[in-house]
Every structure is written in structure tokens, then in C-alpha cells.
Design goal:
Elements (H helix, E strand, L loop, with lengths): L4 E6 L5 H15 L3 E6 L5 H4 L6 E8 L7 H9 L7 E10 L14 H11 L3 E11 L11 H23 L8 H12 L1 H16 L2 E3 L8 H5 L5 E4 L5 E4 L8 H5 L5 E3 L1 H26 L9 H26 L3 H9 L27
Parallel strand pairs: 1-2, 1-3, 3-4, 4-5
Antiparallel strand pairs: 6-9, 7-8
The protein binds flavin mononucleotide and iron/sulfur cluster (SF4) (2 copies).
The site of flavin mononucleotide has 25 residues, from helix 1 and strand 4.
Length: 363
């Protein structure tokens, strides 16, 4: 065995990356490695990571928008410089089961971006891998049935252990079919990943709302890994999603009342509000006060205007929306017009993972 010690830092919303880290830790421990698993929220890398080639640093995290979640990017940027320490990055991604087929998810630039940050910090990155776990993105699609979830997990466990075995044996994990697939897609989809990081994740955060089943217990707010939920209101308090929400789906997965919806009808209205009228309004202003040409034909200008207006308009719209939701018939209307309200749509959480497993010890 090449390593004496391994430190696995994980970020996980609904338990997939946590479970994959457990499998990695189990394999390392079975191989005689002294292994430590730490949530990125509890991490103290300066103390935990030795500057030694006998220590392996592993980072495990979900894919969001074909790249790494912003919370993970920030964590990697904050890691201390450790010249000889070896590192390994693994992203979990959305695995599917379609009959006998198991199409892979796309982690795109997720692991390469984190690997690059580690490389620039002096780590010797030994390779990257991706594991297909059941998709948790319930705002986009219905959750797969129990049997599919079980089959995907089984395959994921084997794959994870194979990747870990290879790294622990001191071999590199760069020239694989999976990495080739991800490099190509990562490059092709990099524009979408960029848009996801600067806009998409904020938009997604502002789709969440609690339906009338919410009893104000506050479990969602206390357990959010990035503290993105404020409980607001007099009397029974209701969750309000802030901009720093990472759309990790943890709150929705563990809400005891299944009260958290991702508003689809609201998304349609929001797109209209955020993109069209606000930009149109500014273009009219420009055309009135600077009448030197057809501003609406200037795509760079339209892009810049949209970019500047996006955040305040989104914030204001959500603020008004969250107030309106307090009116019972309005809340009901938006609940009934979102797919996530359908009982068959489902909420995903990794079957063996409990909320306490994902709780930060610092809380
Ligand atoms: C907002 C969001 C974006 C996602 N984007 C992708 C993606 O681009 N590609 C992919 O394969 N899976 C994607 N997924 C699926 C998750 O990466 C996958 O289910 C992961 O295993 C979840 O891990 P966790 O339970 O540790 O958070 C996305 C999930 C969410 C919630
Ligand atoms: S966990 Fe569910 S029921 Fe509790 S406050 Fe959050 S949304 Fe409401
Ligand atoms: S608010 Fe919910 S979805 Fe957003 S980061 Fe917190 S737990 Fe995750």
C-alpha cells in the first residue's frame, strides 16, 4: 500500500457523496490505511493534512451544472499549500437506469477544475473519477423508483472501490475512457457551467418555496450546509431561501412534511420577469436618453444589461413571491402547478444516509 494515511473531505446534499466517501473509507481501512472522513464544513485542513507523500487527500462532491459546486470550489481554494501530498478527486453524478441500460451522468469539468486548483497549490494530483449515483435533482425530473436506485447504488459501489483500489496501489487515474468522455463534454458544456455558476444557481435557489404543509419546524434551516434558509414571519415562521443556496436538495430531501417545492409555474413567470421586461425597460430608457442608434440590436449591451439587472430583479421578485405565498389560495395555486407536488414525483435521499450523518459537528 502506498499510503499510511488518507483524509477524505466530502460535500454532500442528499447523501450520495457521503455514501461514496464511506465506501472509499471502508476500502482504505480494509487495506490498512489510517483513514479520516471529514465534511468540508467541519474541515481543519491545516491540522489534518501532513506534508507527506504517505498521505492521500481525497475530495468527494456532487456535480452541479456540469461542474463542481461553488461551495466545493471555495473549499479547494482555501486548502493550504502542501507540496508533496498526493490528491484524488471524485465527483458523484446523476446515474440513470432505463431498463437494462445505465446511461452515465455528466460531471464535465467538475473534477478537472478541482484537480487544477490542487495542482496549482502544489499537490500531486494522482487522478480523477466520477461515480454514477441516483440523481437527486428533483426540481428537474421525477426521482427514480426504489429498484433503480438500488441497482445504480450497487454498480456505484463496485466502481468506487475499483477507483480507490487503483489510487491506493499508487497507480494514476488519468487516462481512462471516463476521463476522456468528461474532458470532451466538459469543454463543450463549459459555457453552460459558467452560466450556471454566475446565474443558474441563483435562479434555482429562488424557485424553492414551502407549501401549506410546512409547520415551521425549522429543520431545513438548521441543517442547511451553507446557512441559506432564514425562517421568516410572525407566528408560524416559514423558510425563505437566500442567494447563497447551492441547490443541494438537502432541505427538500429531509423535510419531515415533504413541504418543499421547486416552483415550475413560478419558474416560467420568473424567467419572463427576469429576462424580458427588465431588459426591455432599460433599453427603452437608453433609447430615450441616448438616441444614437438601435440599442436593442446590440447583443453585447443586452447581455450586460441582463447581467446587471438579473440579481436585483430576481431578489425583488422572490421577495414579493414569498409574501404572496402567505395567502393560502396563492400558495395552493403555485403548489398545484408544480410537478414536485405530484406524489409520484418523489424526493431523493440516499437510502442508508440519515440526517444526523450529514450534520455538521460545528452546529
Ligand atoms: C442543482 C443540481 C445540478 C446537478 N447537475 C448535474 C450535472 O450537471 N450532471 C450530473 O451528472 N448530475 C447532476 N446533478 C446530480 C447530482 O450531481 C447527483 O445526484 C449527486 O450524486 C448528488 O450528490 P449528493 O447527494 O452528495 O449531493 C445535479 C444535481 C443538482 C441538485
Ligand atoms: S423542514 Fe419542512 S416543515 Fe420544517 S420548516 Fe422546513 S419546510 Fe417547513
Ligand atoms: S437551502 Fe436547501 S438546497 Fe439550498 S443549500 Fe441549503 S439545504 Fe441545500
Amino acid at each position: 500500500m502506498c499510503y499510511r494515511k488518507a483524509v477524505i473531505y466530502y460535500l454532500s446534499g442528499t447523501g450520495n457523496s457521503f455514501r461514496v466517501s464511506c465506501w472509499m473509507a471502508q476500502h482504505a481501512s480494509d487495506s490498512g490505511v489510517d483513514v479520516k472522513m471529514v465534511s468540508v464544513n467541519d474541515a481543519e485542513p491545516v491540522r489534518e493534512l501532513d506534508a507527506s507523500t504517505e498521505t492521500l487527500l481525497a475530495l468527494v462532491f456532487p456535480t452541479h451544472g456540469f461542474t463542481a459546486p461553488w461551495h466545493m470550489i471555495k473549499f479547494a481554494l482555501r486548502l493550504p499549500r502542501r507540496r508533496p501530498t498526493h490528491a484524488f478527486c471524485l465527483a458523484t453524478r446523476a446515474g440513470l437506469r432505463l431498463g437494462r441500460l445505465y446511461p452515465p451522468g455528466i460531471s464535465g469539468s467538475a473534477t478537472f477544475l478541482i484537480a487544477l486548483i490542487l495542482f496549482l497549490k502544489g499537490y500531486r494530483v494522482r487522478g480523477t473519477a466520477a461515480t454514477d449515483m441516483p440523481s437527486n435533482w428533483y426540481s428537474l425530473h421525477p426521482i427514480q423508483g426504489e429498484k433503480s436506485v438500488e441497482q445504480i447504488r450497487k454498480r456505484a459501489k463496485v466502481r468506487t472501490r475499483t477507483s480507490m483500489a487503483r489510487i491506493l496501489d499508487g497507480r494514476r487515474l488519468w487516462f481512462t475512457w471516463n476521463n476522456l468522455y468528461e474532458v470532451i463534454l466538459g469543454i463543450l458544456l463549459s459555457y453552460i457551467s459558467f452560466l450556471y455558476l454566475i446565474k443558474g444557481r441563483f435562479f434555482l435557489a429562488k424557485l424553492f418555496f414551502a407549501n401549506r404543509n410546512c409547520d415551521g419546524c425549522g429543520i431545513c434551516a438548521t441543517n442547511c450546509p451553507v446557512g441559506a434558509i432564514d425562517m421568516k414571519g410572525s407566528g408560524v415562521k416559514w423558510p425563505f431561501w437566500r442567494y447563497n443556496c447551492e441547490s443541494c436538495m438537502k432541505c427538500a430531501a429531509f423535510c419531515p412534511q415533504n413541504a418543499i417545492e421547486a416552483g415550475h409555474s413560478w419558474a416560467a413567470i420568473l424567467i419572463y420577469i427576469v429576462v424580458f421586461p427588465a431588459t426591455g425597460f432599460l433599453l427603452v430608457l437608453l433609447a430615450t436618453y441616448l438616441p444614437t442608434g438601435d440599442w436593442s440590436g446590440n447583443s453585447t449591451l443586452v447581455f450586460v444589461l441582463e447581467f446587471i439587472l438579473f440579481y436585483p430583479v430576481l431578489y425583488l421578485s422572490y421577495f414579493v413571491f414569498s409574501r404572496l405565498l402567505r395567502v393560502s389560495p396563492i400558495n395552493r395555486l403555485f403548489s398545484l402547478t408544480t410537478f414536485t407536488h405530484l406524489p409520484s414525483w418523489g424526493r431523493y435521499r440516499e437510502p442508508e444516509t440519515r440526517l444526523k450523518d450529514l450534520r455538521s459537528s460545528k452546529k
